[in-house]
Each structure stands twice: as C-alpha cells, then as structure tokens.
Write a structure and sequence with these properties.
The protein has 509 residues and is an alpha+beta fold. The chain has 16 helices and 21 strands. It has helices at 3-24, 51-60, 108-120, 155-158, 169-175, 227-236, 250-254, 285-288, 290-298, 302-310, 339-348, 365-379, 392-401, 418-425, 439-448, 454-471, and strands spanning 31-36, 65-67, 73-75, 78-83, 89-94, 133-140, 143-148, 189-195, 199-204, 218-223, 241-243, 259-265, 269-274, 315-316, 355-362, 383-390, 406-411, 474-479, 481-487, 490-491, 507-508. The strands form five sheets. Strands 8-9-10-1-11-19-12 form a seven-stranded mixed beta sheet, with helices on both faces. The protein is globular.
C-alpha cells in the first residue's frame, strides 16, 4: 500500500477513535466498524439512490415489510396485509408501541405521511416505485388502506425497501429538504453524525420495538474506496466487516484464520447504459442507431470478462434478472462474441472509422478492470472506448445530465423483477439515464405490473425483451457474487439475498 494512503487512513482511524471516545465517554461500549466501497448519497429514503445508502438505512430506517433468507415477504413495522379481490385495495395492520428516534409515535398517520412524502416530494426517487397508489387512508390508529389506481403486483416487494421506510413526520416537516442530513426513523439504531468521505456513526436506540435483538452499542460505517486499503483495515483490526470484497482477494481471506468469507448471489446486475436521448451526447452513432449498439454488444465476450477479472466467480448474463430467477427468459440466451458480425452491422449502419465513445466508469478497481477489458475487445470491432473514471456519486449526477455516451452502472437488485427494469426502461423512469422511450414497451411494462400470475407476467416481459434487448439502452454483462469478509469476532452475520447488512442479532466477541 502506498505510504501516503497508509498515513491517511491511520490518521483517520485515530480521529475516529478520538471522536468515539469523546462522544460516548466510555470506550467499553461495543462498536461494529463496517467498510463501505463508496460514500452513500443523501440519507433520506425518499431521495436516496445508492446501494451503500441502503446498507446504512438497514440500521436506522425500518420498513413496513422486509424479506427473509428465502425472499419471502415478512412484516417489520407492519404486522399483516390483505389485498381485496379486485387487487385495488390493500389494508395494512401496523405494529403497536413503536417509536421514532425523536420519541414520536409510529402510527397510521405517520405511515400515511411517509408514503405520501415518497409520492409527492419534489425529486423523489420512490414515486415511480409506488405510483400505482392513488391515495392512503387512515382506517384507525394502527391500520392504513392503500387505494390503488389499478392492481399492482410489485407493491409489497417495493414496501420491503426504501419505499416502505417510515420517517418521523415531525422531524421531516421541521428539516424540509435537509432531512437527509440527520434522518429520523424507527430502526434499531439512531443517526449520530456524518463526516463526508470518512464516517457515518449510528448508536443503539433504547426504545426500539425489538431491542432484545440489538447487541452492539454503535456502528461506524467507513467509506473506503480503495479495496486494497479496505481489506488491509479488516486484517489489521480497524474494520470488523466489509462489503464487496474483490473476487481476486477471496483466496487471501480464506487462508487467514482471523477472517471469514460470507457469500451470496445478487438479485441485480452489472451493465452499461447507452445515452440514446439524454442531451447532446446522445447524438452519436451509438446513441442513434440500434445496429451500432448491437455491434458493441457482439464485440464483447462476457465469459472472458468473468474469467479475466473475477476468476470465474460471476454469472454472465444479458437480462435484468439472474438465471436462477423464475422470471429469467430462456428464450433470449446470452449472445456469443462475433466480431465479424459486429463489423458487418457497423458497415450496414454506414459507420466508417472507429466509433469514439465517452465511457464513464465509477472509480473502483473491478469496474476499471472490466472497462479496460471491454475497451480492448471493442477495439477489434471498430470502437474506441475512451474511459473516463469518475467518483461514484459524481457519476450519478453526470448521468442525470446526460454527460456520457456509455455509463458502467451496477444495480443491486430487487425482489420483484419490476424493480430491476421499470425505473430504467420506462419513458419517465427516474433512473432511465439513457432516455430510451418506447410507448409500446411502456404499455407492456405497465401491464406486467397489473397481474400477479407468473406465466402471464413472464409472457409480457418476453414481448418487452424482444424490443428492449435489440433496441434498448442497456447492455447487461453479468450478475455479481455477493462477497463479504468479516473478523471472526463478529458472530451472527449472514448474507441476505438483497445484499444488505441486517444488524439485528449481530454480536462482537
């Protein structure tokens, strides 16, 4: 590790220890230290977008529902739900005796406030996820009724994530658009402080409704972008758990008897988004001609990318769900690399000379490595990928503005397939950074939201995929293995299907 990085992180560690000691006054308190691959964006469940943000939210913001290890939907702040025969009304019974971190009670009025905030707040990234809700009604102090515009199959799955997170109405009204600076929710831990690019600190909430399962006093989330430094911190004892271990570091963790490897398989995907309609940078052969986009895909060898960068640990794929998902479409197999066909498509499209592409890549070693392999492969077919490495949060802002031709973007995944596709492919999807829009495709996605029958939904997704996978703005590459490493001091940790770190039932020796 370079000396300047070692010194920087050593000083950060000393500052962090001093801050913890000063703020607690008791070094005997247990503190779980978690290494994140990036610094989260805003800590407001209505406005947030990042995977690492969801990891932090898992400790501070309980949801109406959660998932178990087998992807079953289970109650969290809700006790039960019932859907009407026509699928247009959902009645939810809420858990009694729950308090927000500011002491305010969680009840039907608070649940109504949170859901309406997700639906109406300017810039909300939750609106599209629960847009089927027409209105929220208070039935009694512990019961709400969701009246839907039409049946909405993904609703309960959406309420297991940020759309289901409940915030204190009192705190949210007082803070306005600054709520994300000091969020107040109803989770097992309450927010204490955040130092950008350095740490997020939360502490055990004494009045948590399920406090018997909370055994650690504090959690310190430390964003450490350099994966080598992140692992070094784990090995030296400055971290207890880290997410997104590099595939190339798996062997090193396995041979260290002070560490444990925990693995799973993600619900999401890694892919590249193409700018087809988002500002001036869409005006390229890649953005304007689907044949050029297919040529780029045919220049890539997904299996080779997996072997070269990940030692074969990932699952190559070309869809928004992984091959184990019941909604995976066998009708659309992963295309094999075909450079000759790629060149023929470019010729058919009237493209001469190398196709120059501004390739925006978030700054982490695996993303950079994949981008470099893609750059080499695509060059053989007639593409010149100009890699532009960008900090992750900055890359999201650049994507919104359309400042890219090609964007290397991961999605951590959702339990319902709609959560992996709608916001990226629908005309008004908030994360449709490429701005691909096809009203006929929208109609298919909308219809797939109205039926809960797997075969019917799958048939609709097949019709959609026939257009999206040939003309669309995302090329899917692979589905990642979830790789976590932790100290043997940490007990009770298990990898969940959504890749989020559940902090209840964890203990430190």
């Amino acid at each position: 590790m370079p000396l300047h990085k070692t010194l920087t992180h050593a000083l950060r560690g000393l500052a962090l220890a001093a801050a913890l000691g000063a703020s607690t006054g008791a070094l005997a308190q247990t503190a779980l230290r978690i290494g994140l691959a990036e610094d989260p964006d805003v800590l407001d469940p209505t406005m947030a977008r990042t995977y690492v943000g969801r990891i932090v939210f898992a400790s501070i913001c309980d949801k109406l529902f959660d998932i178990d290890e087998k992807l079953n939907i289970v109650g969290q702040l809700a006790l039960s739900h019932q859907t009407s025969a026509d699928g247009k009304t959902v009645t939810i019974k809420l858990r009694p005796n729950v308090k927000f971190h500011d002491g305010e009670p969680f009840n039907a009025e608070a649940a109504k406030f949170s859901l309406e905030r997700h639906l109406t707040e300017k810039g909300s990234f939750r609106r599209a996820e629960i847009s089927a809700i027409d209105k929220v009604e208070v039935v009694d102090p512990l019961t709400i009724r969701l009246v839907l515009k039409s049946p909405f199959a993904p609703l309960m799955a959406q309420l297991t994530d940020r759309a289901g997170m409940m915030v204190s109405p009192k705190a949210a009204r007082a803070a306005g658009d600054k709520f994300g600076n000091a969020p107040v929710c109803a989770g097992p831990y309450r927010f204490v402080e955040r130092v950008a690019q350095d740490r997020i600190v939360v502490e055990k909430f004494a009045d948590y409704w399920d406090k018997g399962r909370v055994h650690i006093d504090r959690i310190v989330y430390r964003p450490i972008q350099d994966s080598t430094v992140r692992l070094a911190n784990l090995k030296s004892g400055q971290l207890d758990l880290l997410e997104r271990l590099l595939a190339t570091d798996v062997a090193e963790v396995r041979k260290d008897n002070r560490l444990k490897l925990a693995t799973g398989f993600e619900l999401g995907y890694q892919g590249v988004t193409i700018n087809v309609g988002n500002g001036e940078k869409a005006n390229t052969p890649l953005g304007k001609d689907a044949r050029v986009r297919r040529a780029l895909e045919l220049s890539l060898d997904r299996e080779a990318i997996d072997q070269v960068v990940f030692n074969g640990l990932q699952s190559p794929g070309n869809q928004w769900v992984n091959p184990q998902n019941p909604y995976h479409l066998a009708k659309f197999p992963v295309p094999k690399r075909d450079v000759a066909k790629a060149r023929a498509l470019l010729k058919e499209a009237g493209v001469t000379g190398p196709v120059a592409v501004d390739f925006m890549v978030p700054n982490n070693p695996e993303s950079r490595a994949v981008a470099e392999v893609m750059q080499s492969m695509a060059a053989e077919a007639g593409f010149e990928l100009k890699i532009r490495v960008t900090e992750f949060a900055t890359s999201l802002n650049e994507a919104e503005k359309g400042n890219f031709n090609l964007y290397f973007l991961a999605w951590s995944g959702r339990t319902d397939p709609d959560g992996n596709i709608y916001v990226f492919a629908s005309c008004k999807g908030p994360q449709n950074y490429g701005r691909w829009c096809d009203p006929a495709a929208d109609a298919l996605l909308d219809k797939a939201r109205t039926t809960s029958a797997l075969n019917e939904r799958k048939a609709l997704y097949e019709q959609f995929a026939a257009k999206w996978l040939t003309e669309g703005s995302v090329i899917y590459l692979y589905h990642r293995a979830l790789l976590f490493a932790h100290s043997t001091r940490l007990e009770g940790y298990k990898v969940m299907p959504d890749g989020l770190i559940r902090v209840t039932d964890l203990r430190l020796k």
